Amino acid sequence: xxxxxxxSVCCYPFLSYLCSKRTLIMNKRPFYLVFTVLLTVCAGVxxxxxxxxxxxxENHYLQLRDELESQQRSTDEQKExxxxxxxxxxxxxxxxxxxxxxxxSLSKVAASxxxxxALNHKxxxxxxxxxxxxxxxxxLRGKQLKAVDNFLRTRQKGGFFSIFDGKTLKGWKGxxxxxIKRATMSTAEMAEKQKTADEAMRRDWKxxxxxxxxxxxxFDNICTIxxxxxxEMYVDWRLDPAGKEPDAGVYLRGTPQxxxxxxxxxxxxAQVGSGGLYNNQKHQSKPLRVADNQxxxxxxxxxxxVGDRVSVWLNGVKVVDNVVMENYWDRSQPIPANDxxxxxxxxxxxxxxxxxxxxx
Length: 360
Known about the structure:
Blueprint: H1 2-11, H2 15-20, H3 22-25, H4 28-45, H5 57-70, H6 75-84, H7 91-96, H8 107-120, H9 127-136, H10 142-152, E1 161-162, E2 172-174, H11 179-183, H12 187-204, E3 205-208, E4 211-214, E5 219-224, E6 231-239, E7 247-252, E8 255-261, E9 299-306, E10 309-314, E11 317-324, E12 342-346, E13 350-359
Helix pairs in contact: 5-6, 8-9, 8-10
């Protein structure tokens, strides 16, 4: 119960006053009852205060990265921050080390951090990790170098690969209608519509500082050229706090959607948090808990889809647990078995980065 109280006070700070006076106004059991009632009411009508990098390994990485990129630090302080990323055991932290492999003062530390995470988390194996280790290898020494060499001699079995290179829109296309309508189009009709959609995509989506950014003013999705069946996907995202209605999402197999929004927008129910399967009607649509970081800060999704069932981790917290995703386009049919992934923009600027996927 004390843990629940601690987390609730973070989300609804005014409850801290009640906690500070509890020993003066009532004994333990009545206090717990009153607190539970108030918390239930708050959760239904008030927006939870999004956390500024609440304590999880994934958020520790995001916080360290934010500090590295937004604050002036000495070389020793930068090295210390990089070393701390080993403790996160995070896939995104491991891949981030690639940014420093050409930095003369930080490259050896970054290479060692990447190797440490990789060797301790073989579940991250894949083209992305092996390419990183091959780049890091010349900077490694001793036992770590030997361990990396031994690992690279093993056979790669699938694994994570990048679907956004941070430099171009290669591998991405504009949105043409929905999966049901696309299936009825002739090759010529599809090609003509795709040409128009690609022009809009190149106008509205830009690569800026290694990030995939929506700069348009309407509603538009950018789509993978490749299609996916069962998969796991990492993607970091950030909403623009200056946006009129900060809102976005991730479409799975062309179907809406894993929701992203500003938790302060209680008029549309956003106080429940991001990560839920927003368009579900029969099955769970809301996330299990609020795990969003403060508006304007980076967040990280891990999305797993097998068959029609979806699990979502937001900043290391499971917010969707093996829930059926319904076919928004025709609820009498199951979700498509094989289709594109789409990043949605909903009228305001949104940023995506570090997008990796593996087929299951």
